[in-house]
Amino acid sequence: ITFRVSAGDGVLIHGGNGCGKSTLAWIMAGLLKPSTGTCLVGGLPADQQVGTVAVAFQAARLQLLRPRVDLDVAAAAGFSPYDTPRVAAALAAVGLDAALARRRIDQLSGGQMRRVVLAGLLARRPRVLILDEPLAGLDAASQRNLVRLLVDLRRETGLTVVVISHDFVGLEELCPRIVHLDAGAYVPGRAPAGEFS
Q1: Which residue from 118, 129, 136, 135 is spatially nearest to 154, judged by alpha carbons?
Q2: For the chain, what is the mean pLDDT?
Q3: Of 81, 88, 89, 185, whose Cβ has the fewest other Cβ atoms within 10 Å?
Q4: What are 165's strand-pairing partners?
Q5: What is the pLDDT of residue 108?
Q6: Where does residue 182 fall: left (phi above 0), alpha (psi -120 to 50 degrees), or beta otherwise?
Q7: What pLDDT is recorded for position 1?
Q8: Cβ atoms within 10 Å, residue 70
Q9: What is the DSSP string of 7-64?
Q10: CA–CA gap between residue 97 and residue 100 (Å, rounded)
C-alpha cells in the first residue's frame, strides 16, 4: 500500500491508543527506520534527512529544554539567542509577542509552551511539521487559536502539516485528509464516523 502526502497537505493520522500513530510520526521524521517498507521525503529515505520533518511532541514542556523562551527558541532553530530580531520574528510567526522572549519557560501557559515549541521548529524551515495530539490539555479558546494559526501557516507557506490524534473534532479545516491506523496497519477507506472530506 502506498500513501502519498503532498506539499501543503493537511493530514490527520487517526486511531486508538497503541495503534502506531506516534511510531509512524517518528518514522516520518527519520528518527526510526521502518521494519518493513519505506518512508520517503522528497524521494529520499526520511532517516537520511533528519530535520526536514519537524515533530512537536504531545507534552510541549518536555521539548522545552532551556530556562528562558529566547534561549529555547534559538537552540531549537539553530541560531544565537543574542540574535534578538530572529527570536522576535520566530515568536511573531506563531502569534507571540517579542516581550515574551525573556520570560522563564515555567511561567508560560500550556498554549504558550506549544507556540514556543512551534516557533523554534518553524524557524528551521522544515518541509513537514508533525504535531502529536496538539490540542490535548488546552481549553477551547486555546484550541481554536492554535488551529487557526496552523491553518494560516499551512495555507500561506505551503507547509505540510500532519496531526497525530485519537480525535478529530476541531481539526477539519487543518486536516482535510484522514489516514486511519488499526493495530499498526493502514486501513484504506476506513475513517471515523463523521469523517470530513
Answers
A1: 129
A2: 86
A3: 185
A4: 14
A5: 94
A6: beta
A7: 58
A8: 24
A9: TT-EEEEE--TTSSHHHHHHHHTTSS--SSS--EETTEEGGGSTTSEEEE-SSGGGG-
A10: 6
Q: Cell digits for 173?
A: 479545516
Residue 9 pLDDT more than 50?
Answer: yes
Q: How far is CA 71 from CA 25, 77, 88, 117, 121, in A?
A: 26, 10, 12, 12, 13
pLDDT, tens digit, 9 for 90 and up, residues 44-102: 999 888 788 999 988 888 889 999 999 999 999 999 989 999 999 999 999 899 999 99
DSSP 46: G
Residue 167: strand, helix, or coil = coil
- For 73-133, the three-class secondary structure string (H helix, E strand, C coil) is HHHHHCCCCCCHHHHHHHHHHCCCCHHHHHCEHHHCCHHHHHHHHHHHHHCCCCCEEEEEC
CB 15 within 8 A of CB 186: no
Could you give the CA distance from residue 63 to residue 72 in angstroms, rounded to a whole number?
A: 9
∠ CA 7-23-57, rounded to 5°: 75
| Contact (Cβ atoms closer than 8 angstroms) between residue 145 and residue 151 | no
Amino acid type, 91: L
